[in-house]
Every structure is written in structure tokens, then in C-alpha cells.
Amino acid sequence: MAALGTIRGPTIPQADRAATLARCRWDDVRDGDTFARMSDLTLYRDEFWISPYVFSCDVALREKGLAYDEVSVALQRAEQRTEVFASGSVTARVPALRHGDFVVAESSAIVEYLEEAFPETPRVLPTDVRERARARQVMSWIRSDDTLPIRQERSSATMFYERTDAVLSADGARAATKLLEVTTRLLAHGGEHIGARWSIADADLAFMLQRLIMNGAVVPERVRAYVERVWQRPTVQVFVQRERPAYVAY
């Protein structure tokens, strides 16, 4: 497995964050009174490190051993809607990745871009065409309306901050049941991962399942073992073990 990527992200003073984002160029960021030149790759991420989509990109970058900078965007203050961020990212969403003078947003697009822009690095999607299609299917499905009730009722904040004991709604329960059914089908071949080897789709699926497991859901032992195995991957643990500021809901 590739060595972990280097992070050299500057800290932006909280009081000046919105103004800073409005002033900065995509290749510069203000840190106090000086401008710090960034590396060729910069990941723009949520301030609390709880976004499943930032998670996917962060893990992919680390699996590939790519050095990168990171800049936090305070979603609770709608910093992603500032003109400079929106114009650069196009969709005004986090995460976004800057590579030189090119910026792309949406986590799946970022992962695909990294695969094609850095073909000499370890792959995070399967090389086999059918397994790669399956991985893409899983990643697309996780981001679909099928899992929306889980994302709403078991937010990622409950994974890294305060757990919830709220009972799932009927829609949430149906979504949870389907999630477990889909996972069981994906693992029916008896292997340790969705495909023959680990891929970023495993990380995404494990993250979705942890929304349930961390909040006390009872899941089949095979599913639990799968999630625990993926969750202990070093690149995943770097994200899980990060120091996080006090949470502000958004």
C-alpha cells in the first residue's frame, strides 16, 4: 500500500474566513499576513472532517501516496457559496480538488480524475472492467435517493460527535434494510471486499454502514466483520482519528 499523503494545509483565522475565501486565488491562501504557496494538489474539505465525500477523496489521495494541501471550507457559514469558490468549483460544493489551474468538484469525479491523472500511482478502482463497473455502481447507489433517509436520520455528525438514539422512521428503516440486503449480495461471493481486492467503493460502503452500526444497529456478523476490516485500513484510520473542532450544526 502506498505511503500516506502529506498534508501541509494552512490555518485560516476564523474571524476572517469568509473574507479570506473571497480574496484568495485558487493557488494561494492567506495565513495571517502572508500568502503560502500550495502544492500542486489541494483538497477543499469541510471544517469538521465529517463529510463522507471528503472522506472518499482523502482516502483516495492517501492510497495513491499523493502529497497535497488541504483547505477547510466552513459550510456552516456557507463559505462554499462565495463567488470565488463557486466560480472555481462550478457546483459550489465540497469537496473540490485543485490540480494546478484545474478545479473539479464532486467526490466521484475527483476519484475518477485522480485515477486518470496519476496512472502511475496505486489504483483505488478495480482494474478489471466488470469489477470497476460494479464499484462505480456501488458508489453511485450510495449517493442516490435510496440512502437519503439514512443520511438524514443518521448524519455523519453522529459518527464523529454525539450519537443518536432516535428510532428510524419507516423510510429510514426501509433504507437500512435495503442497505444491508445490498451489502449481503455484494459479499455473497465469500471474499473480503466487493471485488477481488479493496477499492474506494469498499470505503464508501463501510462509511454508509457505520452510520447504522455506530448508532447501535444490529447487523449481520458478516457485514459487521466487513465494516471493521475496511475501517481498520490505515488510510481510513487517518481520517477517523483526526482531531476535530467543536461541532456546529449546519
Question: Brief overview, please?
Answer:
The radius of gyration is 18 Å and the shape is globular. A hairpin with a 2-residue loop joins strand 1 and strand 2.
Q: Which sheet architecture does the biggest sheet show?
A: 4 strands, mixed
**SS-derived structural category:** alpha+beta
CATH H-tier superfamily of the largest domain: Glutaredoxin
Summed up, the helix count is 11
Radius of gyration: 18 Å
- Domain tally: 2
Low-confidence stretches: 1-38
**Beta-sheet strand percentage?**
5-15%
CATH fold group of the largest domain: Glutaredoxin
Cα distance spanning the termini: 36 Å
Mean pLDDT: 88
Across the major sheet, the strand order is 4-3-5-6
Shape: globular
What's the architecture of the largest domain in CATH terms?
3-Layer(aba) Sandwich
Order of helices and strands: HEEEHEHEEHHHHHHHH
Number of strands: 6
> Which CATH top level class of the largest domain fits?
Alpha Beta
Instruction: Give the proportion of residues in helices.
Output: 40-55%
What would you note in describing this structure?
The strands form 2 sheets. A 4-stranded mixed beta sheet has the order 4-3-5-6, covered by helices on one side. A two-stranded antiparallel sheet has the order 1-2. It has 11 helices and 6 strands. By secondary structure, the chain is of the alpha+beta class. It has 2 domains: 14-123, 3-Layer(aba) Sandwich (Glutaredoxin), CATH 3.40.30.10; 129-236, Glutathione S-transferase Yfyf (Class Pi), Chain A, domain 2. 35% of the residues are buried. It starts with 16 loop residues before the first helix and ends in a 10-residue tail after the last helix. Mean pLDDT is 88; it is low at 1-38.
